[in-house]
Structures are given as C-alpha cells and as structure tokens.
Amino acid sequence: MSQAAAPLLFGFLIDAMGSRVLIVSSVLSLAAFAALFLLPEKASQR
Amino acid sequence: MSGRQLPVILALGTTQTLAWASSVYLPAILADPIARDLGISSNWIFAAYSAALALAAVLGPQVGRQIDRVGGRPVLSASNMTLAAGLVLLGFANSIPMLMAAWLVLGVGMGYGLYDAAFGVLGRIYGEAARGPITGITLIAGFASTVGWPLTALGVQTIGWRDTCLAWAAAHLLIGLPLNMFMLPAIKHAKAAAETATKPHIPIDRSMILLAFIFAAAWTVTGAMAAQLPRILEAAGATTLQAVSAGALIGPAQVVARIVEASVLKRYHPLLSTKLACLMHPLGAAIVAVFGGAAASVFAIFHGAGNGVITISRGTLPLAIFGPHNYAYRLGITVRRRACRKPRHRCCSGF
C-alpha cells in the first residue's frame, strides 16, 4: 500500500534520514514525471 | 465552465470541502486529543486513518461503476450518510476497536465521497467537457484544509473533540446531504440501467498501468507531505513557527496553481500541466537543500502548487486519454491500483 501507508512510512524515514527524506519524495515525483513521457495523448480504441 | 454548470460546481465544491475537512484533514488536529483521551499512542489514530485510506481505495472500482450506472446523486448522498455515521462512531469511541471501526466506516464514506467519486460524477454529467467543472470544484475544495483545520481546532478548544466530530456529522446531514440530493441532476432511466448493466471490460493495458503508477507515486508524496510536512521542515532547520507558517501557504498555493491551470494551461493537453506539476516538489526540495529551513515557505509554495494541479490531473488526464466512456469506473481502477502499487493478479483479473 503506497498512499495509505505513506504518512506512517515517511514518519519512520524522517527518523532515519531527517530532511534527506525529501530525496525519496523527489525521486518519486521525478519517476512520475518520467513516466508521463511514455503516456499517449489519446489511447487507441479497442 | 458555463453558467449552467455553475450551480453543480458550487454544490459539489461545497460538499467536497465538507467531505475533505471532516475526514482527511481530521487526524492532523484530532490525533493528539483523541490519543490523550483514550490513553493510547497517536500512532493508533494514524494507523486507523491509513486503514481508512486503504479501504477507500479498494472500494474505488465499485464506486465508479455505481456512478457510471446510476449517476452521482445516490452515491454522493450515501457518502454523506456514511461519513456522518463514521463521525458519530468516532465521537463515541472509547477503545481502540471502536476507534478502528469508526475509521473503517469513514473509509467507506471517503471511498464514496471524495474527489475520485466527484470527478466521476462530473464525467458522467458533462462527458469530455468535464475538465472545467473538475477544476472548478478543486478551486473551491482547495480551501478544505484552510477552512477545516481552524474549525476543527476551534471545536476541540471550545466543545471538545467528541462534540466536534458530532458537529461535522451534523454538517453532513444538514448541508452536504441536501446539496448532493437536490443540486445534482438525476440520470434518466438510471434504475433500469442499473438492473440490466453488465460489468464493463476495461483492459489493464500499458497506458492504464502507467497512469496508475504516476498517480501512485505522486499521491504517495502528497499523502506523506500532508501528514509530515512540519516535521520535515523542522528537520531541515526551520523553527516550529516557520514550519507551521509554511504549511499554511500550501492551500493558497494550490488554488493559485489551479487558477493558472484553468486559465492558461487549459489550452494544452493535461499531460503538459501534469508534467509541470510533477517538477514542482523536486524544485522546492532542491531549494531547501541549498538554503535550509529558511526556505521552508518557498518549498511549501512549490509543493502546494504541484499538488494543486496533480489533483486536477487525477480527473482530467484519464478523461483526455481514454474519453468519458466508463470514466468513473476507470478512475476507480486507477485508484485501487494506486493503493496496490505492486501489480497483483487479483487487482487486475476481475476487470
């Protein structure tokens, strides 16, 4: 579970990494950004 | 956005503000007083909240199918009653099992009543023209934390957390329910359609998987920041006041970004605004990395702006890519796959 567990998981990560947890959140955002380039503007109809 | 759409946008914007303020934005204010009163760790409240979020996600496809079949009026009205029931249960909770039960009921209400359901309703009513109304309701409900947090905090100070829960429940029955019941258009022949409907086949293809991954990643960041932003900023060197003040900027930043989306970016495919939105959080994080806690407000503005647009993209991107056919059901599937990040056979095979 990602979104549902995020508040708890990031709580643990902050304990371990401090503000460097922003690296984790930034990597997730950049992964989403990269994946957007693979999406078509319009899906082919089946 | 046309004049004829305005009453529906205002009604849904109001009911969304109420739904978010009385569910998602409750734990940030109520976790500590509930934990103190019940003599438990506040982690129990966050665990119960996580369970509610997970349940809401699991319900996504069923909620979407219901909206596609019978329209939004009965579904969103049911969400008001369910959220009210969950809040009453929470108001009377005196043990961990009752706390968990209350949040599970709230999770059902969240599944039936938050943005995904509202976006599905707008897609059902307006088809491909739903982008404007989707932006419209997020412009209003973008203030849910700005309105909800102070109201809940005021309630805790004046009438206590239990009566605050009951007050939110009353708001659902007296404001949310009538608005959803009387302001949303009825879908003609909905009952007959519901009786004869078959489960739609939506292939879980590459585009669907990518979409689910994108929103899973983006909403993991959103969920984490909604609960932990002040701690992160304090860890970066901000004072408590700087961290809290920065948090207060997220709501306005969301709304400003949504106005830009509605005015400037609406001419372009939602892919463009989503890409820009995904860059906002890393940019803000880079600024904090360079300037430390003193840049807490700048980070909050960047994060809030990105988050504001991603919320809209969650509704507009699937609509632009796949069209309005079975739109609400498709939204529900991406929500559930967001919750199940690793592709699991059971998550996909039933569709």
Structural overview:
The complex is a heterodimer of chains A (46) and B (351). Chain A is built from 2 helices and no strands. With 46 residues, chain A is mainly α. The radius of gyration of chain A is 15 Å and the shape is elongated. The mean pLDDT of chain A is 85. Chain B has 2 domains: 191 residues, MFS general substrate transporter like domains (Growth Hormone, Chain: A, Up-down Bundle); 120 residues, no CATH class. Chain B has 17 helices and no strands. The chains are: A mainly alpha (46), B mainly alpha (351). At the A-B interface, α1 and α2 of A face α3, α11, α14 and α15 of B.
Please give a quick description of this structure.
The complex is a heterodimer of chains A (46) and B (351). Chain A has 46 residues and is an all-alpha fold.
- Sequence stretches where pLDDT stays below 50 over 5 or more residues of chain B: 339-351
Q: What is the rounded Rg of chain B?
A: 20 Å
Please state the structural category of chain A.
Answer: mainly alpha
| Biggest sheet layout of chain B | none
Range of helix content of chain A:
55-70%
Number of helices of chain B: 17
Q: What is the 3D form of chain A?
A: elongated
